[in-house]
Amino acid sequence: MRTIVEGLNAEPFNRQLTMVKFDSRGGEKLLQTLSDVLGWIQGDIDHIQKWRLDILEGNKTAIYPVLEWMFDNVDRLKERVYLASFLTKVEVPVEEQSPDVLRVINLVEQKMQEFKEVHGRIVESRSDFVRAEDIHADLKAMTEEKEQLSRKIERSRRKVARRPDLDKCMTLAARLRHENEKNQDLQIQRQEQRNALVHTGQRLNRLERTLNEIERERETNDPRVLMNKMKFERLNKTDKRDKKDEASEDKLVIYRHQSTNIQRKKANIADSLHSTRQELDHIEAMIMAKKTELTEKSGKEKWFRRYSTKSTQKFKEIKQENINEGRGVIETMEEDSDLLNRRPKTAKPTTTDVRNLKSGAEELSNEINQKRSAVQQLNQEIESFYHEHKNENEQFYAKQAEFETSKERWKKNRKNFDRN
């Protein structure tokens, strides 16, 4: 990964990537990076298309370089063909992938990986063997060169051994070698100084151009124009500062509005709390009044119950007496009526005098009329008694309903009071 990142950060890509950024890239970005690198390696697309056409047409300019490259890389090509025969994957359709087939595919991939590892170790051992042979050949060549140099040195010694000024010549040769090295150093220094002089001249020219431009601007510039320009810049900066202050003020205004709203809500809540407390006090006072009223009514209720019980009993007794009396009168009248009905059939008249009979009939009719009037009077008394006590009964039942309503209301108030 380090090699890839270094290559992408170099020319002509200049991606400025790190290993972490490159590792976090998605699939689409990696494909785009691969496409860019392949395009950079392939070079001109038009040239590639022309080369392909030349290959198809059998042009010599395209065939000869390919053949030359193949003969130069025969061993590598043979190795690739050999590896391809063992490392080519067989594509199996998805619908035919059973568990057994998947197990075989995984086993084949595992064996391919083992084959790659074994082949890599073999290649390394071969390269080590070739390297050892190269080192052995280099050592042999160096030994031969050493022998040749030894023979040359021996011949040179034999040649100069006869000269009387050998030491002087060796001293001069050492001085010559030293002077040559010194001359080389001086040449390097002179080249460096020339380069520095060139750079200094270029810098001087650049500074002179800058100075000339400044002098021309000084000649053409008017102090009033400069003052106006400075004023304009000052106004622009003042406007920017004011806008910035307004923006900050706007932010503060928002917070002020929020605080005002919060205070208003707080005051409203306090008012509602005060009104709620007043209402609670009022309700408590009403509850106490209701309690007092119900307490007072409870005594009246007992008295009213006793009074209603006595009145009912008295009314029942009077009514029963009237009914019994009416029943006795009715029974007497029924007996008289039966006697009168049976008498003409069973009894014989005591006299045959018409006047006596008329007077007896008148007496009977008068007696019957008196009985009827007495019965009517009793019925009227019963009806009047019923109507009189009917109002009392209605008042009693109304009082009883009012009492039940008050009792239910008192129970509800009691529940609300207990709940609060």
Report what the structure shows.
The protein has 420 residues and is mainly alpha-helical. Among the domains are: 95-158; 167-220; 231-344 and 370-419. The chain is 90% helix and 0% strand. The chain has helices spanning 2-9, 19-23, 27-42, 45-57, 60-72, 74-87, 99-160, 166-220, 223-346, 354-419.
Offer a quick outline of the entry.
This protein has helices at 2-9, 19-23, 27-42, 45-57, 60-72, 74-87, 99-160, 166-220, 223-346, 354-419. By secondary structure, the protein is an all-alpha fold.
Features:
420 residues, 0% strand, tubulin binding, cilium biogenesis/degradation, IFT81, mainly alpha, single chain
Write the SSE topology.
Layout: H1 2-9, H2 19-23, H3 27-42, H4 45-57, H5 60-72, H6 74-87, H7 99-160, H8 166-220, H9 223-346, H10 354-419
Helix pairs in contact: 4-5, 9-10
Subcellular location: Cell projection, Cilium
GO molecular function: tubulin binding
Coiled coil: 132-217, 354-395
